[in-house]
Amino acid sequence: MCRKFIITNNGVLKFGLVSRHLDLLEYGQNDCHGGGLWDINPDNGCIMLFGRSFDFGAPDFSKLQRVCWDGTGGIPHELVYYPFWPDRVVSVPIIL
To answer: Could you say which DSSP state residue 84 is in?
Structure first.
C-alpha cells in the first residue's frame, strides 16, 4: 500500500492508501486526469504531490475543481507539487 492520489474526471483530487491508482476511482469509472504519490512534509505540514500514475500518467492540475480531504484524515493542508521529484528545488503550489 502506498499513498497515492488521482484527479477524477469530475475534477476531484482524491487521496488514499492503496495498491493501485485505479482503487481510488468510483465503481464504473475507468479513467482520470492523472495521479501520483503524496506525503506530508514533516517541516511545514504541507502535502507534497509528486511522481505520476503508471496507469493514468502525470496529474493535470488544470482540471482540478475541488479536493476531497477524506484520504488525509479530513483536514485540509497546503498542497505543493514537485514535478522533478526527488529534486525539491522546483515546487508548484496548487491553488483552487
So the answer is: T
pLDDT in tens, 78-91: 999 999 999 989 99
H-run or E-run covering 64: none
Are 31 and 9 within 8 A, CB to CB?
yes
**Which CA distances in Å does 44 have to 1, 78, 93?**
24, 9, 14
Run of H or E residues at 32: strand 32-40
Report the distance separating Cα 6 and Cα 13, nearest Å. 6
- At residue 28, the pLDDT reads 85
Residue type, 51: G
